[in-house]
Automatic annotation (TrEMBL):
This is Uncharacterized protein.
Length: 680
């Protein structure tokens, strides 16, 4: 329907009025918002209004990113999302200074790392598992001084302290430390180099101030360079205690048990210095190897290298014992009348060690073997041994020892029948006891050397005899230097009665035994104290051998009788000569000469040498130790004659050819004095 002009104008006016109303309404809304904003700021700053309760803040506030705004008025801070700082919330004051309110990890780390000195008033804790605190330069606060109180305590206030004695005493005992916190580390040292602090173990048991030291060993802090470090543990000693971590004193901060456990648990212990072990202690190891290739191992200046000891092949030398038992043994024979049994045992008890070139093995005591019996008239010799190829088993042979294989000789036994062995015993049993050591601890080699020394001394060279003065009133004896063996070869000094050297007359009649004289002519009686005047007699001369620097001595044995006839004396037909060397000299004395002397009392007396018999290198015909020569009691009828003691040209010879062959005739002398009448 067409609108008239008037109506159209009215509608246009109404539209203008409505537009004006909208503008007024929008202004009113903006005004209301401005009032509310001012109220928000006032209430926010005053802190008297719960903004959430008024509906101004429901759960969050949103800031639009923008560049730094103008400064707020004095007394206000302006917060905005700063586009110049990655949108971080930033606070700006009236002077234009800005603070970043939104710290992320990288920012915090960069800020802390960039801080020249970070001063914190609280604790720093790293709580996450597996995390750690790392510092290029970790320092404790400068040490402060603490003084021991009358109870021997100090009160800990930091991690590093200097400790002084009470009243500056020379020595003080530190028995307790209060102020411990779980996990706290503490380092202490003496305050004064001239005063000693002794930290003592467990003096306050179950008290929170107690000190527990490694190895239960007190620590002596004798100087300002002596330190000890602790950690506090609230779970120890009931109420907590300070536990030693380490100490710098006494070089024993690492105690015996700890050191032993550490060393024993080490697969390879590499040391650059020496290892010193106290006297009486030992180093027990299974194997010692050289450290440097080809250097060997030196023990007390003895080099062990390539199986040699100071260049000597000890193992090769020990081969000398192959075919023996290390220990002494016994081999005993028994018989039950049917079987002869030999039983081998260690002396005194235990098992034997067999020694062969392939090593050492154990042979049980009590091993037995059956011997080969002989007869009553033909005994049987048994050779008892152990073969290397059949260790631990005794073998009996009646032929001989093995000649081509290793074996241990046990015994040689001579037996008759089993019945005779049971009733009368064996004929002989020689044990081959070649052990290394006696039951008394003495070495077996000494037995061998002792046996050798029991042999007679052996002459080697020299000791030539020269007599002077024969046929005169004075005889002199000279013996040149020589050599002879005891066990070892010795030099025998020269001897000369003109020097004068004395001879010793061993068997001079009592009480003058061992009379010493340089005058042979003064020997005027025999060993039975019978006169040698106008008689023929023999003197036996022998030398001793000395091992030291002393000179050897010359000895003379007197005969037990003398002769009227020179030939009888030279042949000693009555066995008067004495070749005995006393037992005490056995092994270090040797025979030198037998000399035949004729004494004549005419013209004041003279002594004439009629014969010299060299005895050097001979063994006394009687076993040394005493006795006389065995006297022959049967002689050929032309072996000797009797001569008159006043006129030796008057002689009596014997002739037995008239006796019938096979017969012995007895000539009996009547018990009266008289003259035997003979037929023509």
């Amino acid at each position: 329907m067409p609108i008239d002009r008037e109506t159209q104008e009215q509608l246009t006016n109404l539209q203008v009025q409505l537009s004006d109303f909208d503008e007024r309404l929008e202004f009113a809304e903006r005004r209301t918002q401005a009032i509310r904003h001012q109220n928000f700021v006032d209430n926010f700053l005053s802190g008297l209004t719960d903004l959430g309760a008024l509906g101004f803040i429901s759960s969050h506030l949103d800031w639009k990113h923008r560049a730094s705004p103008p400064n707020p008025k004095s007394g206000f801070q302006r917060i905005f999302a700063d586009t110049d700082n990655s949108g971080h919330l930033t606070s700006r004051n009236s002077s234009g200074s800005e603070i970043d309110l939104e710290y992320v990890d990288a920012d915090a780390i960069a800020a802390v790392e960039g801080e020249a000195t970070l001063v914190l008033s609280g604790d720093v804790k790293v709580v996450a598992s597996g995390k750690f605190f790392e510092a290029a330069d970790f320092r404790l606060d400068s040490a402060t001084e603490l003084t021991l109180d009358a109870s021997g305590d100090i009160a800990i206030t930091q991690s590093y302290h200097r400790v002084d004695t009470l009243s500056d005493a020379g020595t003080g005992n530190l028995d307790g430390m209060t102020g411990g916190n779980d996990g706290a580390i503490l380092l202490i040292r003496p305050e004064n180099d001239g005063r000693t602090v002794i930290v003592r173990h467990n003096q306050n048991a179950a008290n929170a101030k107690n000190i527990l030291l490694a190895g239960d060993d007190s620590a002596t802090l004798a100087g300002i360079s002596d330190y000890i470090m602790f950690i506090y543990d609230v779970n120890l000693d009931t109420n907590g205690a300070w536990i030693e971590i380490s100490r710098s004193t006494e070089a024993s901060a690492y105690f015996d048990a700890d050191a032993i456990a550490a060393v024993e648990g080490e697969a390879t212990l590499d040391l650059t210095g020496d290892v010193s072990i106290a006297v009486g202690k030992s180093l027990a190891v299974d194997t010692i190897n050289e450290k440097g290739s080809g250097t060997g191992v030196t023990i007390d200046s003895v080099l062990l290298k390539d199986g040699l000891v100071d260049g000597m092949d000890v193992a090769a030398h020990l081969n000398a014992y192959n075919g023996s038992f290390f220990e002494p043994m016994t081999f005993v024979i028994t018989s039950n009348g049917t079987t002869i049994t030999g039983t081998l045992d260690k002396n005194p008890t235990g098992d034997l060690t067999e020694v062969f070139s392939d090593g050492y093995t154990t042979m049980s005591s009590g091993a037995t073997v059956t011997l080969i019996a002989g007869s009553a008239t033909v005994p049987k010799k048994n050779y008892i041994y152990v073969l290397q190829s059949n260790k631990g088993v005794l073998v009996a042979s009646d032929s001989d020892w093995p000649t081509t294989v290793e074996h241990i000789k046990v015994a040689e036994v001579i037996v008759q029948t089993a019945a005779l062995v049971q009733s009368d015993g064996i004929l002989a049993n020689r044990n081959w006891d070649d052990h290394a050591q006696e039951t008394d601890g003495m070495g077996h080699h000494l037995d061998a050397w002792k046996r050798l020394r029991w042999e007679h001394a052996a002459y080697q060279s020299g000791s030539a005899v020269t007599w002077s003065g024969s046929g005169t009133a004075a005889l002199d004896l000279a013996i040149s230097a020589g050599q002879a063996y005891q066990m070892h070869l010795h030099i025998i000094a020269a001897f000369d009665t003109t020097d004068p050297d004395n001879v010793y007359v061993v068997n001079q009649p009592a009480p003058n035994q061992y009379t010493a004289t340089a005058n042979i002519e003064t020997i005027v009686v025999d060993s039975d104290n019978d006169s040698l005047a106008n008689r023929y007699y023999n003197l036996v001369i022998w030398n001793s051998i000395s091992s030291g620097s002393e000179e050897e001595q010359v000895f003379i044995n007197l005969p037990s009788g003398s002769y009227n006839k020179q030939s009888d004396a030279e042949n000693d037909v009555s066995g008067y000569d004495n070749f005995t060397i006393p037992t005490d000299y056995r092994g270090y004395a040797y025979l030198v000469q037998r000399v035949t002397i004729k004494h004549s009392s005419a013209a004041g007396g003279s002594w004439t040498i009629t014969q010299e018999t060299d005895l050097r290198g001979t063994v006394p015909s009687i076993a040394v130790g005493g006795g006389t020569l065995a006297i022959t009691t049967e002689f050929s009828d032309n072996a000797f004659k009797l001569f008159d003691d006043e006129n030796p040209t008057r002689e009596l010879a014997f002739q037995l050819s008239g006796i019938t062959a096979g017969n012995t005739r007895v000539l009996t002398v009547q018990d009266v004095n008289g003259t035997i009448a003979l037929s023509a």
